[in-house]
Amino acid sequence: MTTERVYLDWNATTPLRPEARAAMVAALELAGNPSSIHAEGRAARGLVEQARAAVAGAVGVTARDVVFTSGGTEAITLALTPGLRVGSQPVERLLVSAVEHAAVLSGGRFAPAQIEVVEVTREGVLDLEHLRRLLAGGRPALLSLMLANNETGAMQPVAEAAEIVHAAGGVVHVDAIQALGKVPFRTKELGADLVSLSAHKIGGPKGVGALVLGADAQGLEPVLRGGGQELGRRAGTENVAGIAGFGAAVAATMPTIVADMARVENLRNRLEANVRQTNDSVIFCESVARLPNTTLFAVPGLRAETAVIGFDLAGVAVSSGSACSSGKVQPSHVLRAMGCGPELAQSAIRISLGWSSSETDIEACLKAWKKLAGNLTKRDHETVPERF
Questions:
Q1: Poorest-pLDDT segment among 23-32, 118-127, 209-218, 350-359
Q2: In what order do the strands lie in the sheet with 93-97?
Q3: Is 339 among the domain residues?
């Protein structure tokens, strides 16, 4: 067993950046409530607004458009509001892709009868023709679509989908939680009316998120009511330390995102080249644009839970899919939507890298993988290996 742990589960959560930690410690020393008008309150407010400006700048909006929340799930729930509108007619139904995060698939504040699922291709990409059919002659809809899938890394055709939805009088929410800090994007270029973000995916603390509002989005109803914080859009005293950490993480990440992710992508590609040498291996979504840090692969006969434990014993932290589904021994809904059979889906392993991932990390991962792959025996293949 290695003496030092190797962390390759960055899509679940990232390590806290030193800049974020320092900002949080400084914020915790402040006594003021950011809604108070005295000097102490103004100091706390200053930290919140500094972070708001950093987040806004990262996605190309004004600071006023950023609403801080308790995390990505709350940001999504705030976005998925019946009655939203861009034009004059409020949306009455919700469209979600079949590969969305559970927070989106649950529908937020839409009733189950108001939710419709848009199919994806075998490569996990939104089926634009199915989207068109669902919108044709129907009531205005809110489409919730992730920019990048948290399991496969597949990038979604958000701009194209937004154009289709807007032409039908609808509204677009983009879950960019997994994409922030890995691929640069601008809210306007995506055609997004609302964008949800989360701090702990970019080196910030857990328990802090944000909803970004497009200038034309109207009819947002708060989830939490009470005081007038966040311009009346989200009641409750702001988590000053968490928000400060979020802003500091964003400020530290964005200037070097292109160079960092190019290096990370090279590491990911090296890892995949070795995985391909294993007989019957399958790398999901490799023919479409993906996050540069993410790979999801499988070898029939090697169950994911066995592999994850094997990696863990070797000192390498990887995952079998979304951390939000941990403890659920069932095939990924993402792979199921892509048409992947249960045997192969139960073998899927996700490895995700980050800014501090190194060649040494990949060496340790490959060493563990070669041992696991080498342990496959005839009894692991009682049936003909399933191909995808």
A1: 209-218
A2: 66-69, 209-213, 194-198, 171-175, 141-146, 93-97, 115-118
A3: yes
Domain containing 293 — which CATH number? Answer: 3.90.1150.10
Residues 6 or more apart in contact with residue 378 via CB below 8 angstroms: none
DSSP per-residue letters across 311-343: HHHTTEE-BSS-GGGTT--S--HHHHHTT--HH
Report how many domains make up the chain. Answer: 2
Share of residues in the chain with pLDDT > 90 (%): 81
Are both 29 and 157 inside the same structural domain?
yes
| Tokens found for residue 244 | 């400060």
Residue 209 and residue 52 in contact, taking contact as beta carbons nearer than 8 Å: no
Q: Quick one: which H or E segment has residue 128?
A: helix 128-135
User: What sign does the CA torsion over 285, 286, 288, 292 have?
Assistant: positive
pLDDT digits (tens, 9 = 90+) for 265-292: 999 999 999 999 988 899 999 999 999 9
User: How far, in Å, CA of 164 to CA of 126, rounded?
Assistant: 12
Distance of CA 105 to the CA centre of its chain: 14
CB neighbour class for 31 (10 Å; exposed up to 12, middle 13-18, buried from 19): exposed
pTM higher than 0.90: yes
pLDDT of residue 387 exceeding 60, the answer is no
- Active-site residues, by number, are 324
Residue 91 lies in a domain: yes
The total number of residues shown for the chain amounts to 388
Summarize pLDDT for 170-201 with one digit per residue, the tens.
999 999 999 999 999 999 999 999 999 999 99
CATH number for the domain spanning 172: value is 3.40.640.10
Clarify whether residues 317 and 195 are in a common domain: no
Flag whether 1 is in a domain.
no
Indicate whether 366 and 262 sit together in one domain. Answer: yes
Specify the 3-state DSSP secondary structure of 295: strand
Determine the structural domain holding residue 334 and report its residue range: 6-15+257-380
